[in-house]
Amino acid sequence: MVELSHINYCQRCGSSLVRKNEGDKKRPYCEICRTFTYVDPKVAVVALVICQTSILLIKRDIEPHLGKWSLPSGYVDRGESLENALIREVFEETTICSIPSHYLGVFSGKGPVVVHVYVVTCTSGTAKPGDEVSEVKWCEFDEIPKLPFPYDCEIISEFKNYLSTI
Ligand SMILES: [Zn+2]
After folding, report:
1. Are residues 53 and 87 in the same domain?
2. What's the CA-to-centroid distance between 36 and ligand 1, angstroms?
3. 22 lies in which domain range?
4. CB within 8 A of 19, min separation 6: which ones?
5. Are 24 and 95 contained in the same domain?
6. How remote is the CA of residue 14 from the centroid of ligand 1, in Å?
7. Helix ranges (DSSP H) in the chain
8. Same domain for 103 and 50?
9. Would you place residue 1 in the very low, low, confident or very high pLDDT band (cuts 50, 70, 90)?
10. Are residues 83 and 22 part of one domain?
11. Are 49 and 26 in a shared domain?
């Protein structure tokens, strides 16, 4: 993932960027184009796919965290709704058709990604490993292993709060 400090060239003209203050923040700046380069966060969706007392986990077959169990997730394309991105990612990774049933919340502030999390119900299909996934499994709510991404602890904790209200 691109961090601000690694942005060295202007995307318009290719010149080397300098660091210049804008307000009290130092940002990459092109002295030829006289413009700042802004780096927006990426937007991702995470799916808590539930069935009775189980949640669907995928084993990642790509970096980062290759070989680790994780929640189905992915980036939202420009022009795509969060809900459609979620349905698409769940299908790509697990081959099941699903619908978002509850918006759990947004997680932001750690690193380059803003994450929107939904509780999702399976509408049809049997979970099988899809793109970039080596295995899938249904895991009991109280046996969810430690997951690898920065917001996972908070997401699972929020999920357990939600479960206690339904
Ligand atoms: Zn430039």
Report:
1. yes
2. 9
3. 4-36
4. 26, 27, 28, 29
5. no
6. 6
7. 82-94, 152-163
8. yes
9. very low
10. no
11. no
Mean confidence (pLDDT) of the chain: 94
Whether residue 77 has pLDDT greater than 50: yes
pLDDT at 2 over 60: no
Q: Identify each DSSP E strand in the chain by its residue range.
A: 18-22, 25-30, 35-36, 42-51, 54-60, 69-70, 73-75, 97-107, 113-124, 133-140
Q: In terms of domains, do 71 and 152 share one? A: yes
CA of 19 to the centre of ligand 1 (A): 13
Say how many Å lie between the CA of residue 28 and the centre of ligand 1. Answer: 11
The lowest-confidence range among 3-7, 78-82, 127-131, 158-162 is 3-7
Question: Does 4 score more than 60 pLDDT?
Answer: no
User: Per-residue confidence at 40, pLDDT binned at 50, 70, 90?
Assistant: confident
Question: Ligand 1 center to residue 94 CA distance, Å?
Answer: 43
Who contacts 155 (Cβ-Cβ below 8 Å, separation ≥6)? 46, 48, 71, 104, 107, 115, 117
Give residue 22 CA to ligand 1 midpoint distance, Å.
17
In the chain, the number of structural domains is: 2
For residues 80 and 142, state if they share a domain. Answer: yes
* 20 Cα: distance to centroid of ligand 1 (angstroms): 14
Q: If you measure from the C-alpha of residue 40 to the centroid of ligand 1, how many angstroms do you get, rounded to a whole number?
A: 18
Q: How much is the pTM?
A: 0.86
How far does residue 34's CA lie from ligand 1's centre (Å)? 7
> What average pLDDT does the segment 64-80 reach?
97
Query: What's the CATH code of the domain at 99?
Result: 3.90.79.10
Q: 35 CA distance to ligand 1 centroid (A)?
A: 7
